[in-house]
Structure formats: C-alpha cells, structure tokens
Amino acid sequence: MDQSRSSSKESPYIRVAGEREAGVKCARCNKEIEQGELTASCMQCGGIHHQTCWTEYQQCGSYQCSQGTMSNASTSALVISRDDLNHAEPLPVIPSYTDNALTISEKPKQLWNKLAIWAFIIALLGIPLFGIITGLFAMILACIALVSHPTHKKGFALAVAGLMIGFFEIIGWSAGLYFYMDTPRTNSIAFSEYAFDPSSLDNLPADLKRAMKSNVLIEVNNGLFGRGMGSGVILTSVDGKSLIVTNRHVIDPEYNGDSRNVTEDFDKSDPVTVQAIGQIPVQGQIEWIAPHGIDLALISAPLDKEVVSDAFWHKDKAPLIGSKVFAIGNPHALGWTHSTGNLSQYRKQTKGAFTYQIIQTTTPLNPGNSGGGLYDENGFLIGINTMTGDKRVAEGLGFAISINTLFDLIPGTFQIPAQQGKIESDDANVSETNN
C-alpha cells in the first residue's frame, strides 16, 4: 500500500474547535467549521475535518493525502466501435471573431432599418409633391421606426431626418396653401397693364366723369406673395397734396378685421403706391387708420389737381332702397371700371362699442374694387366698397361702408366738410364748381 494512503488512515488528532479552527473549511465537505465542534486533524498534512466527515471516510480528504488513492482508483476503458464512428455527425462550425483565420473585414454586414429608409424617402418625395399628406405619412413611419429601432441595425439618423423633414413639410405646405388661396391672383400685375383709353372720358356726363377722375389705384407690397392692389377715392386736394380714403385691408396686409391697436408710426408701414387717372404712379403716405377695427383708412399723395377731381358727397342725404347706384374701381386690374346696380338695403355692423352703417348693393364688386367709391345716381359718394359675397354660393351681394361712418370717426384735424358739391336745380347733373 502507498505510504501516503497509509498515513492518511492513521488516527487523527481529535479536539474541540477553538478560535483558530473556527471558520476554516473542512477538507472533506468544504463547509466552515464552527467554534465548539469536534474536529479531526490529519497527522500527516494537518488538514482539519469535521469529526463526522473523518469517521465516515476513515481518511483525510485533503488534496495532498488523496493523490495516492486517486492514482489507484479503478477505471473502465471507453470503447468506440467502427459503427459508432460511421454514425457520428460533425458539430456545426460557429465562426468566431477571435479566430485567427478571420479578419475584421469578414464580419457580417450590419442591416438597415427598412422603416427608417421608407420614412426618409417619402419625406423627400413630399417636398415637390403634396407635402401635407406625404409629410404626415413620413412622420408616422419615422416614429414607428424610432420606437422599434433595433440596436444592431442602421437607420436611426434617417428616421430622425424623415421625422423633421415631414414636420416642416406640413407647416410649409399648409402656410403656402393658406396664402395662395387667400391672395388675389391679380397682385403681381404691373401698373402698365392698368392703362385704359383716355378718350373714353370724352362726352361723359359730369357726375360720372368726376367719379372716374376721383378714383385712384393703390398698390402695396404684400410680402413674398406679390403686391396687393385696390382702389381709393380722392376727398380733397390742397397745395398739391390729395387726401384719399380707402379700405384698411388694401394698405395693411396683416389686417384681419380685429380691433387691435394701430401704431401711429406709419413711416414703418409698407410703401404705398398711388396712381391717378392719366398720371404716373407716385409714393403715398398713410395718414390715418380707423379705430375699432373698422376697415377704413386715409392716405395722401402728391397728385396733379388739374387732372384729378375731388369726390362730391352730402352726409345728410342718403338714397332710398331700390335707388340706382354705381361703383368706380379697379376690379382684377381693370382700372377705372364702371359698374351699376341698385341699393338693396341699409344694415348695421358693430365693432366693440361702435355701431356703424353698411350699404348692401347689387352692384358687381370684385377683388380690386375694395376702397373704391359707391355713388348714387347723381354721382354723390355714399359709401366705400369693402367686400362682396362668395360668388360660389351667392350672387348680387356687395357691401360698402357708409360715408357717414368716415365722418363720424375721422379726426377734426383733417377738416373734411359734411357736404361737398351740390345738385343744380336745372338737371340731375352735379355742379363741379368745387373742382
């Protein structure tokens, strides 16, 4: 028998575990020995055991003492037959990045997130196409791609780009459509296209000729979407300077009918261009904007008094419902156009605490008539044309702000009389003695 094995079977040293032995792991069961337990120490190697572990195996369990027994342990031979070899299947080969036979360039390629790619492509297509729909669809795909984006795939940046492009497409196309639908298509027409035949004024009745010569064409810069165009009526001409009434929305592209405060610093407003009959365009100056959000304004311009005429009016005389009326203006860039109709009704409109009179008429009004004059059959100014009904759903509905509203609101510093001009007793024409 091997000497180490014989030695390990010698009687051990039995003692109670003290502080030195407490916490030491048993050489046989590998569990900690607690203070006060009976222990057995190998006389050969000094390995400490629980007494019960030594008694059960009758030998030391340490590695030093057990080598001899392991070398003498019985073993059985493993026999593999030829049939076993024939039926054996090779294990699958798993490529390893640490294999020296592989290089970094031979690693599998990283895949793309297809949703992210489609979101980016659709967003790009929406720029020239209808971006409101394509932009929304691109944003939805991009959000899905970002939420479900696998970490092992590429395309995160494309999904973010598709989301941002789609967002700005919706805003841009919405704003563009809004301004396109809201802007008259005549804004970009040049003044040279407003020319008319001067001989058309020959042999006109005095009242109609005066109304024609008191009409002006007004043009104002309308931002990126061209120039806004409308009409105006000359009230007075003093010292080479004519005072003209028009609609506020003609000279203020930001006006939307509200009663917001109006700045008095008109010098910062967009430039206003005024053209009178038979004259070249000149620079105009905003002088006054009506309070309460009412659609009236005054501008001034240096016009030749020998060519133009001041309008006639009589504040206290208003035509009856059903009376013939006519309008002079510049509809759709056709300058100094005359159109006739009847006075349909007097109506009221309230802005804040102020109530004023509106004239309803069957006179045809179109974009460009805004700010022009509505006259009674004697050529007296009775209102400022301001709007018309939607011709897609209504016909023969035009509206003008009564001239009395202007005189109720205009400051006294402008010194506008309540009456200008008179009807001669001999006929229905109006005297032009004030011109």
UniProtKB/TrEMBL annotation:
Example of a GO MF term: serine-type endopeptidase activity
TM segment ranges: 115-147, 159-180
Name of the top EC class for this enzyme: hydrolase
EC number assigned by the record: 3.4.21.107
One of the GO BP terms on file: proteolysis
Keywords: Hydrolase, Membrane, Protease, Transmembrane, Transmembrane helix
Name the UniProt record assigns to this protein: Serine endoprotease DegS
Natural source organism: Gimesia alba
